[in-house]
Amino acid sequence: MLLRFAAENVMSFKNAVEFNTFPSSKSHSHEWHKMDCGYVTALRMSAIYGANGAGKSNLLKCIALLKSLVGAEKMGEADIAEDLYFKLDENGKNTPSELAVEFFTEGKIFYYHLRFNRQEVFEEELLLSQKSKDIRIFSRKDNDINVSGDYLRPGGKDDFIEVFMNAMNRIVRPDMLALSFFGKYYPEELPAVKEAYDWIRRLQVVLPTMRIGYLPHVLDGDSEFAELVNSIMPELKTGITKLGVRKEILNEDEVRGNTTMTKAINAAKEHPGTPQMLMETHNNEISNIVVEDGVPYIKTLIAVHTNYNGDDVEMKMDMESDGTRRLIEYMPLLYAILKRDNVFVVDEIERSIHPIMIKTLMSKISENRDAKGQIIFTTHESCLLDQSIFRPDEIWFAQKDVDQSTQLYPLSDYNIHKTANIENGYLNGRYGGIPFLSNLSDLKW
Questions:
Q1: If we measure between CA atoms, which residue out of 243, 241, 242 comes closest to residue 217?
Q2: What tens digit of pLDDT does each residue of 82-114 get?
Q3: What's the confidence (pLDDT) of residue 365?
Q4: Over pLDDT 70: what percentage of the chain?
Q5: What are the Cα distances from residue 23, in Å, to 28, 43, 187, 286?
C-alpha cells in the first residue's frame, strides 16, 4: 500500500508537496476502504482532480519517474528527457530535485528518500518506519554509503561489514541508486532492501500513452479472471456479451520477413510460457505470442456480440470503439485490485470512456468489501464526485499557487456533510481545483 509520496523542485512542484492515503478523523463512511498497514491505516482509493495544467498528472509522472530510476542500471537509462527542476524559479536550476515515498509491504513500513539531478545522486536513504522511532537501513551522502549492520544478513561480523561497505563505496557510482544496486545484486545480504526494491518495481503506473497488452494470454490461462471479466462486460452495455481468445499454432514460415513478428517469436522461445506483446501490429488486433510445451501460439482477443437471433457473432477488436477498448484494457487492473494487493496509479482514468461506464467501474471497486489492492488516479470526470463511491478524504485537488507551483490538498480539509452534493460544489468552485477563465465578454467573444 502506498502511504505517502512527496516531491520537491521537480516538474511543477517547487516546495515540498505531499500526497497521502491516510484517513481523516472527519470522515467515517466506507469503513471497508480502510486497510491496516502495521501501526497505521491507509485508504485503498484516491481520486485527484484539477484544472488542465494544474499539475495533477505531474504527481503520477513523479511516481513513474521514481519507479523508472529504481529499475534502471544507471540514471541515464531512466530516459529523463530534460532537466526536471521547477523552471519558474531561478534558484531551481542549482537545487537538486527530491522524491520520497512511504509504503507498506511484507508487514513493514518503509520510507525511501532520494535527492538527485539528471546526472547523479546526492543523498539517498531507506528507513524502516516505526511508531516511536524510525530505523535507518542505509543512508548515502554523495558516494559515502552506510548500511546498518542489523540489516546485513551476516550480522555480527564487524570485519565483513567493514569490507563490504568499503567495496560498496568504490563500486556504486554517482549515477547509480544504492537501492537499485543492493536490491538487484545483494538481495540475500540485504533482504530488507530487496523488499523495498521489489515493491517500487511492482508499482503499476498507467499513463495515457501506455497499453495493457497481455490480456489475451491472461484471459486464456486464468479461468477465474475470465469469469470476472465476462460477468462485468454485459453490465457495461458496450454491445459485447463476452470476451474470448482465438488460439492458433503459429506458422513461422507465414510470417517470415515480418520483423516485429520474428522478434516476438524469438523472445517467446527464449522465455517459454511468457507472453510477448503484439499491440495493434497483427492485423490491427490485440495479440500475444507465447511458447507452450515447445509450440509457438498466437493468442488473439476477440469480442463476442449477440445478434437478434441470439447467436454469437465474433468481431475483431479494431471494430470496437476507443472507449470500449480502453474499458477492456482495464479488466486486468480491476481483477488485480479485487484479488491481490497490487497498487495501481492511473492517469486520466476516464479517457475515451462514457461517464456512466467509468462510474460503474469505480462503483464496483468501491463496493467490494474484500478488495485487497489500491488504486490512485487522476480524472476530470465530475460524476465520480459521489459520496456513495468515495470518502471525502479519498478525493484530492491539485491547484496552482500564485508562483505557478502545484499544491495538493484533500476534500476532507473542508467540512463536508455526508449528504452534500460534492459534484455541484466542485463545479461551482467551492473546493478549488477547477479552471478560472477570463470573462469572455471582456475578450469581445
A1: 243
A2: 788 888 888 888 899 999 999 999 999 999 999
A3: 92
A4: 89
A5: 9, 6, 34, 40
C-alpha cell of residue 57 = 498528472
Q: Is the pLDDT of residue 197 over 90?
A: yes
C-alpha cell at 162: 567493514
> Which of residues 276, 303, 328 is at a domain's end?
328
Please determine, for residue 424, whether its predicted confidence score (pLDDT) is greater than 60.
yes
Inter-residue long-range contacts of 202-206, CB under 8 Å, 24+ positions, other chains counted: 202/342, 202/343, 203/2, 203/63, 203/67, 203/343, 203/345, 204/333, 204/336, 204/342, 204/343, 204/344, 204/345, 205/60, 205/63, 205/64, 205/67, 205/345, 206/333, 206/344, 206/345, 206/346, 206/347
Q: Which pLDDT tens digit goes with each residue over 233-280?
A: 888 888 899 998 999 998 877 777 777 788 888 888 999 888 888 755
Query: Could you give the CA distance from residue 371 to residue 32 in angstroms, rounded to a whole number?
Result: 9
**What residue has cell string 522465455?**
271
Number of compact structural domains in the chain:
2
Look at residue 167 in the predicted model and tell me its pLDDT. Answer: 67
Distance in angstroms (rounded) separating the CA atoms of residues 326 and 349: 9
Q: What is the 3-state secondary structure (H, E, C) of 300-357?
A: EEEEEEECCCCCEEEEEHHHCCHHHHHHHHCHHHHHHHHHCCCEEEECCCCCCCCHHH
Widest distance between CA atoms in the chain: 80
Query: What is the average pLDDT value for the chain, to the nearest integer?
Result: 86
443 pLDDT more than 70: no
Domain of residue 393 covers: 1-210+330-445
Task: Output the domain CATH number for residue 20.
Answer: 3.40.50
The last residue of one of the domains, among 309, 328, 347, is 328
Q: How far is CA 87 from the centre of its chain?
A: 26
pLDDT tens for residues 26-58?
Answer: 888 999 999 999 999 999 999 999 888 888 999
Surface-to-core class of residue 187, CB atoms within 10 Å of its CB (0-12 exposed, 13-18 middle, 19+ buried) = middle
φ and ψ at residue 277, rounded to 5 degrees? -80, 135
Same domain, 417 and 434: yes
C-alpha cell at 28: 467515517
